[in-house]
Amino acid sequence: MRDMAAALILVAAVVVFRLIGPLAGGPVSLVLANIAPLAAVVVAGAVYLPRRVAFAVPFGALFISTVVVNWAKGWPVASPYTAVVALCFVLVFAMAWMIRGTRRVPAVVGMTVAGTLVFYLLSNTVSWVFEPAYARSLAGWLQAQTVGLPLPGAPPSWWFLLKSLAGDLLFAALIIGVCHPRTRAAAVAPGPVLTAPPAA
Prior knowledge:
The protein is an all-alpha fold. The protein has one domain (2-187). Helix content is 72%, strand content 0%. It has eight helices and no strands. Helix 6 crosses helix 7 (138-146). The longest helix has 32 residues, at 157-188. The radius of gyration is 21 Å and the shape is globular. 26% of the residues are buried.
């Protein structure tokens, strides 16, 4: 129960952190863009939360925060991009569900990195498809995945990937630190020691 409460608190903290940038605006929004560890939240839900809430909690948090972020930025709540983003995270959840029974630290960290990369590649591919400024060619797709569009003051796409990885790995470290030691201790806790009665 304490593990679940700690995981829920961390998920709520991520949602609040995700909302700070868009609601604050200005330089704060640019600095905090893409740092929110969304992939790590989905992986944590699939691996550590009880089955009855493993899907609902992270996706409910992502849905609420996405609605608020889109509203703050003046973007439509529902669009092809948001639909693909949701499908990306469903895929990440399905991938993380496969390691639910192990909860090994390397597996959780590796799945977090994989989830970040899957989201980055697919979301940038959607941008390449719907953004008319990109050339409809392999070169245009590579541009979307690496440097992005040459907008004034905008960093390249790979910079957002590094920020996403940093945020996801930090959250993964926190959730592992909260939940994994207790899981491991419960697994290796010694049972009762049986001793033979003294000889008569």
